[in-house]
Each structure stands twice: as C-alpha cells, then as structure tokens.
Amino acid sequence: MIHLDGVSKIYGNGCVALSDITLDIPKGDFVFVVGPSGAGKSTFIKLIFREELPTKGKLIVNGRNVGELEPSEIPYLRRNLGIVFQDYRLLPNKTVYENVAFAMQVIESSRRDIQKRVSHVLDLVGLRHKAKNFPGELSGGEQQRIAIARAIVNNPVVVIADEPTGNLDPETSWDIMRIFERINRDGTTIVMATHDKSVVDAMKKRVIAIEKSRIARDQVKGVYGYED
Amino acid sequence: MKIRTMEYFIKEALSSLKRNGLMSFASVTTVALSLLILGMFLVMVLNLNNMASTLESQVQISVYLQDGLTDHEMREVGTRITKIPGVVQVNFVGKEEAMNRFKERLGEQQGLLNALGEANPLPNAFEVKVDKTERVKAAAQAMMQFKGVENAKFGQEVVEQLFALTKMVRIFGLVIIVFLALAALFIISNTIRITVFARRKEIGIMKYVGATNWFIRWPFLLEGMMLGFGGALVAVLFLNETYGILIHQVYETLAFLPLIPQYPFITNISVVLLVTGTVIGALGSTISLRRYMRV
C-alpha cells in the first residue's frame, strides 16, 4: 500500500529530515510512527499525502509514484487518503454535518450518496445526534471524532493521522483509538504519528521508530520505547 | 461540470461578495467609473470619425468673394474658376440665397437673425465641385490667388482637423483608459486576495480532501467576474441614459450635427463594455489566485 525505497528528504535550508528510508506498509496494517520531536515523523506523514516531495528515492502510495505526480494528479491521490490532524481543522462556521459532507461535496458526489455516507460515518464515530451542532459547541474529543468521520467519509484506503490525540486527555484518547481500531478492522490501512506511550504500549501494533532521520526500530507488536 | 457543483460555485461566490460588502462595493464602483470613461471615449471617437467621413463625402470648395465687386468682375472670376483643371461644376450663390439657406438650416431658431435687421453679412460665393478629392487642395489654392476672391474654403480642411482631433482624443483616451483599467484590475485582485485570505483554512481542507485546483478556483474566479460585470452594467445603464439625453438635446438645438443614432450604436458599445468588465474581473482574480493560493 505504502512503499518507500531509499527515500530522503532534505529541506531547502539543508536540514535533513529523512535519510535513506526503506520500508513497506502492506494493506490493512496499523502502524505507529514514534520518535523524538523533530526526528522526521511529521515529514514522513507529509510525504505520504504529497504535502512535501521526496528529495531522493522512490515513494509509492496506493500504486502511485508520489515523487513523479503531476500537480493535477495530487487531488486524486488524496481522494484515496484520509487525513487527521492534531488540531482537527474543522470549519467553525459549518455544522458537524456540513463539515463532513464538505469532503464529499468537493469531489462532486451526488446529494443522495452524501446523505447516506455522512449519516453512516457519524454513526460510526457515535456523534449522529450532534449533526446540527457547530464545532465550537463540542469537546475536543468530539471534534476529533468529527475530523475522523470526515477523513473516512470518502472510503479511503489509507488513513493518515498526525498526533491525533496530542490535545486530548487519556480517556478521550482511548475513545479515539477505539474508532481507529474499528476502521482498521474494516480493512483500512492506518499510519499514525504519535507521542502517546500508553496507547502504543497497550495496542501492540507495528511500531516504526524514527530517530535522527533514520529508522531506528521496526517491530511487529512493538512498544513505544521512550520515556516521555 | 455538474449542475450541483455550478450551484455550489455561484452560491459560494455570492456569499463571499456579501461578506466583503464594502470591498465589493468599492470594486464595482471603480470598474463602473473606468468603463464609463472608456465608454464615453468610444462614443466620442466614433462620433468624430463619423462626422469626418460624412464631411469627406461632400467635399466642395466654397469660394467667397470680396464685397463690392461688380457683376462683370464676379462673372470674370467664375470663368477663371471653370478653367482650373479638374473643376466640373461651378454654381453662383448670391448673398440672398446664402441667407435663405442659412435660415433654413437654423430651422426654428431663425429668430436669432432678427437681431441683424436688414443687414446681410454673408458674402457672394461660388460653389465649386472637383472631379477628384486629391485635386481639391490645389484647386482651392489656385482660386485663392484670383483677384476679387476673399477666401476659398473646402471641407477637406475641416475633415483634416476632425481627424486630427479624433487622433488626439484617441491617444488621450487610451492613456486614461489604460490607467483606469489597471486601477480596476488592482482593486478587484485586492478584493479577491482578501476573500482568499479569509478562506485560507477552507482552501487548505479542500486540498487535503482531494478537491481539484479548478474546483477551488472557480468560486473566486466567478466572484471576480461578477464584480467586473456588475461594474460594467452600471456603466452601461448610465451611458445609455446619458447618450439618449444627448441625442435628444442635439436634435432639438443643433440638428445639423451628424450624431450616430442611439441604437444599435450604444448596444454595441454596451457589449464591448460588459465583455471588458468581465475580462478585467477574471484577470484580477487570476492574479490573486496565482499569488496567494499556490493551487
């Protein structure tokens, strides 16, 4: 699903974020990406959805060579990816329902499909009863659940999450994790950068540790491995 | 493009126009003023051109005679004129006939002439037709040398002056129009820039969920085009109204001035203005989209 072959990322200012990364994430995997701040986790995430371009090496996401995508092809790559951010990124002047429906509107889905899918994913994150509320009226955990609903509403093959529980308390973080696990069970690949030690340790998923721009560890049923 | 998507674009553009009410108003006003001036220059240049060509088609030389010539002397001048190469027709127009013609041309305003009393300041004259336009100038100059001739005027002079005036108006107008078009372009692109800025979060999310660049651009492009078209519409309505009034006034007071009739003349100019306004709007938003959206 995601395949990196000798991928490096060097920013314009000479900062080496990733050097010579080779790894393979098969379909249906649940992967935690861990490591100290500034080690390259975020860059790794950004490469996958083509926010950044690899400087060297080959990166294949869902069968597309990301490094060689034309700018006009980027939207079609992203339609197969769901992206979740630490800061939710919901639109404050749209309701919960409109926020989720927005992701389907911009790829020109039909009105009927939108109604069906949005209700379905709001059910899945347990917030259908808040459909008419505005994001400002929800708690942080609820907002992140809406953001997840938006990320999966277009049936992506991969969900990418950059510190999705970074702003949440432990109990709420577990609610969020259970939703990700449920999505993963339905066959969606999950790649998550995180600092949440207890979550990583308890879930026993694949753990990729990035330190000083290189892969330091790649364990099946791994642990967080750092003191906070 | 689906109809639903088009609806969405138009809705987005309209709500954005409303949200930036003051900037929208400023843009429309600037475009309206610029295009109004463009329209006025067009009306002026085209009318001057029209006058010049109307006059050009009736080139004849008017030879004015000095006062106090005897009949014999006048006949002498007439004979000499007929001998000039190219002259095909010579008509004598006496003082009285000249006065009658003048009265006719003034129409309802002949009353003005009452002030003259019995006096007739108009000279005796010959009207001379020449076979080719190129020969007019030389012929007129020759006649000017004849004894007893006060002056020889021909339409060509007026025509040339009119063309010169047209040229000046055109150059002057062009400078102003370019300047105003740039101002309109600037203010529209500024309005769109503000819109883009106000919605940068939304644009970011659209990109993450896979909206194509054109999907993101369309509402802004439409907004710019609406601003340009709106401004043009104001200019067109105003121009149409004022030209109507102008024509009316001219027919009543200066009937001999050959103005181009209102329709379809103003309709054609309106089309030009509306298209120009819309293009300026589209260009203005394109500039902002390229500079501030990176899409």
Description:
The complex is a heterodimer of chains A (228) and B (295). Chain A has 228 residues and is α/β, with parallel strands linked by helices. Chain A has 2 domains: 114 residues, 3-Layer(aba) Sandwich (Rossmann fold), CATH 3.40.50.300; 66 residues, no CATH class. Chain A contains 7 helices and 10 strands. Chain A has a 6-stranded mixed sheet with strand order 6-7-8-3-9-10, sandwiched between helices. In chain A, strands 2-1-4-5 form a 4-stranded antiparallel sheet, with helices on one face. In chain A, helix 5 runs parallel beside helix 6. Chain A starts with a strand and ends in a 9-residue tail after the last strand. Chain B has 295 residues and is of the alpha+beta class. Chain B folds into 2 domains: 186 residues, no CATH class; 97 residues, Alpha-Beta Plaits (2-Layer Sandwich), CATH 3.30.70.3040. Chain B contains 9 helices and 4 strands. Chain B has a 4-stranded antiparallel sheet. In chain B, helix 2 runs antiparallel to helix 6, helix 2 crosses helix 8 and helix 6 packs parallel to helix 9. Chain B is elongated and about 100 Å long. The relative contact order of chain B is 0.17. The chains are: A alpha/beta (228), B alpha+beta (295). At the A-B interface, helix 2 and helix 3 of A face helix 1 and helix 7 of B.
